[in-house]
Design goal:
This protein is of the alpha/beta class and 329 residues long. The chain has one domain: Bacterial extracellular solute-binding protein, family 7 (D-Maltodextrin-Binding Protein, domain 2, 3-Layer(aba) Sandwich). The strands form 3 sheets. Strands 2-1-3-10-4 form a 5-stranded mixed beta sheet, with helices on both faces. The protein has a 4-stranded mixed beta sheet with strand order 8-5-9-11. Helix 6 links the parallel strand 6 and strand 7. Helix 6 crosses helix 11. The longest helix is centred in the C-terminal third of the chain and has 35 residues. The N terminus is likely disordered.
Amino acid sequence: MNRRHLMKAAGIAALAVTLPLAAQAAETLRFAHYAQPGDTAYRAAEFFKEKVEAATNGDLEISLHPAGELGNSPTMLQGARLGTIDIVLTGNPYFTAFAPQVNLLDLPFLFQSADHAYAVLDGEIGAELMNSINQSNLQGLAFWEIGFRNLTNSVRPVATPADLEGLKLRTTPNPAHIEAFRILGANPAPMPFSEVYSALQTGTIDGQENPVNHIYASKLHEVQKHLSLTEHAYTAAPLVMNYGRFVKLTPEQQEAIKAAAIEAAVYERELNAEEAASSLQAMKDAGVEVVETPDVAAFRDAVAAQTRKAYVEKFGDDLVKKVDALAGQ
């Protein structure tokens, strides 16, 4: 065999060796989220990555992009719908623009407890709401959470609805949240979470509302003086994937992602429950003045009925009744 034929044969042999290797190369999925290091959602995303990569023997790799690295919440969601980002985690209110039925979950004082919220999210109501999200080129994977929201500000303690008069508060873009704070006399200012710290620091806004462990992990207590444990609303955080990318995966890979998403949701809930008390104490130690027993009944009486009415007028009362029926079960 002459040299030219040897080189040709060697090339064919090399191709035969390299082609299977190329086919086995790991596929990378980009996962963008809002959470800062130390936040429970940040740690749940790392947990999800580990589970997916282990279950697929490394055939799928998850590239994590935390803290709004790939854009604020609306931008990340748009990226997931367009396919420029594969997986996104953000608060339920940001889905309202294209899946307004999920606004149900953000109605003030809808849930009586964390168990009540989980019964809704993990059952047929959650499945119906996730299906409404799926109509927008997304594949819902699981409901993670941000949790029960509490008020902070740098002007005065808030114990009653009257104490909110005139305060400029960052809210989510959820219509129910905006309407509730207007009813209470505050000036709601929707903005992406990534902008909140600097807005508080510069005095552009007076306060905001989030769960205590989220407030602490994001260091918002550094630029706030007062915290009120109102637990006025609960915020879920749907974990979603670009639909086109999802359906191109093998059935085994799809199942691995779904299973990891649910496991990570449970893990995050456990972390949130464990860290609520320690986060609260840490903020007290840092000098934040805490109103531990605000007049929650007065807040509820002021906003619950009116915000529910607006939702029912658009979507009917079927889901609201189903949510109420699960309370205490």
